[in-house]
Amino acid sequence: MNNQTIGVGIIGSGSVVQGIHLPTLARCGEEFAVRHIMDVDLDAARSVAGRVGARASGSVDELLSEPDVDVVAVCSPHAFHSDHVIAACRAGVSVVLCEKPFATTVAQAREMAQEAERSGTRIVVGAMHAFDPAWAFSRDRAGDVLDRATVIRSSIVLPFNDRYESWSTEVAQASPVPERDVSTPEARAAQITARILGLGIHDIPLVRSVLPDWRELEVASATILAPLGYAVTLRSGRRVVQLIGSFRDHGEPEWEFEAVASDASVHIAFAPSYVQAGSGTATVRRGATAEIFAGSARNGYEEEWRHVADLVREPRMPTRSLADLVDDLAFAIDVAERAGEHLRHAGATEGSSR
Ligand SMILES: NC(=O)c1ccc[n+]([C@@H]2O[C@H](COP(=O)([O-])OP(=O)(O)OC[C@H]3O[C@@H](n4cnc5c(N)ncnc54)[C@H](O)[C@@H]3O)[C@@H](O)[C@H]2O)c1
Predict the structure, then answer these.
(1) Does the CB atom of residue 115 touch ligand 1 within 6 A?
(2) Which end of the chain, N or C, is less surrounded by CB atoms within 10 Å?
């Protein structure tokens, strides 16, 4: 494919499509045209497709049989990612952008990877910060600082998504904020697992790239932060990893990634997802000197879509390997399940001491 406009089919038409992907695709100009939007809620599909002059349907098969769809974006709820990615591979789609999390089990992720291997489909997972220019700058400038870091921290403290969704677009069929039950150890364990796979997973590729030996990590502590948050501390030898996610109704959003060694550090501040405010900013410090990346107009979502375009136009273009996509998910699920187990155990201990 040369310089022709790339046709996009989108499965799911919810908040991430309306508030993030459609504005991002619009910023990419002539590069992409949205041709078909599918949703099980046909009214939502029609309403959202109408905004961008795309066709609408309630059928994945119909979307996948469109001759002018080159790329499929899987933006359905987590539970359907594996079915939708596999269907797109079997239909011979050249590139699939799958929203995070890649899947909900490692077995599913492996099956998706095998199917992609068979069909030659390139897969990009929408963990946007892995594409953010602030992360690219940090990796480029940090040298061995990331490898030597003894403290690694991913901290996501945000207002509830619906605030940004309503600022960024008028969302058709907005999903309600889920009820949170944290009354039993089992419910707390389910809560922390769901939150890590829903929110913490955004920066898992960054955290994992600094931790090749992640299987050796132990959960030192796991806590539910009300409402809907988590704080998990992991340890491996001299390394400490802290994962924090929290929603609150006041204050400034803070979305940070940090890797700190004794004499150097990397710090990145990202903008909240629905705010089209450009990339993150980064500071790489060594002793008294600091290199600063002040940010660029393109954020991780735009870079992610431009990478998709590169993969369509240049099939040999390198991308994150299928094995890495599976391992990112395996790491996230492992941490989420072990954090859940920690909470269950803490609950059992509380119970037995009464
Ligand atoms: N990368 C990011 O910043 C980011 C942000 C938000 C959401 N997400 C991810 O995007 C995905 C969708 O999230 P959302 O916030 O848009 O959810 P949402 O609940 O707002 O929308 C989901 C849409 O999918 C539709 N749907 C349900 N089952 C379907 C099926 N079987 N086939 C097709 N469509 C179906 C629903 O009708 C709804 O319109 C999730 O996996 C989420 O983790 C990523």
Answers:
(1) no
(2) C
